[in-house]
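Help wanted!
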Amino acid sequence: DAGVTQSPTHLIKTRGQQVTLRCSPKSGHDTVSWYQQALGQGPQFIFQYYEEEERQRGNFPDRFSGHQFPNYSSELNVNALLLGDSALYLCASSRPRGGRVETQYFGPGTRLLVL
Amino acid sequence: AQTVTQSQPEMSVQEAETVTLSCTYDTSENNYYLFWYKQPPSRQMILVIRQEAYKQQNATENRFSVNFQKAAKSFSLKISDSQLGDTAMYFCAFMKRLQGAQKLVFGQGTRLTINP
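Answered by r_m:
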């Protein structure tokens, strides 16, 4: 049973560039959430996708956008990169049903460094 | 908005000892879930234990147990017979129980080191 996978594992970009991060959910999961984890901090919620739509968004600017595909995989795009975007980006998948909370399972993350 | 506070940035104990990590949270919600996640140095976040707020019984998972005090909004994690593999960052997290989107709100984490 494949867990949550993310690619790439590491990425180096320069300020102003754009980046795309990818996530494949755990088998059987249809909901993908993205989190940003700055060094030494707890993860911060960016947004969540379900049925190919953004369902909820955290306090992140519009430079952060996403997409979910019919196979439930997801992409996180960040435009006009800033130094402060350097962080570990975590993807988590789940399968919430009828208000019942399902545990979110995390991928290994993508480490983004903006120079 | 919900907030989660972990007041112990770092802790260190000897192998086989028992250690307790603290977590407090602030919410006006009555239905919610609480989680402890572990993030080893290899960085993949792993669920340790979860607690449903409507359940009075404290959750346990092998050597891991919680002390859930709903009125005090406290959710501590106890690790018994600690092992070297327990060395990791531990995050306490809160999730509202509602239809649709469910996001985790994390604390700042506690870095736990188990010494041989």
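OP: Thanks! One thing I noticed: The first strand of chain B starts at residue 3 and ends at 5.
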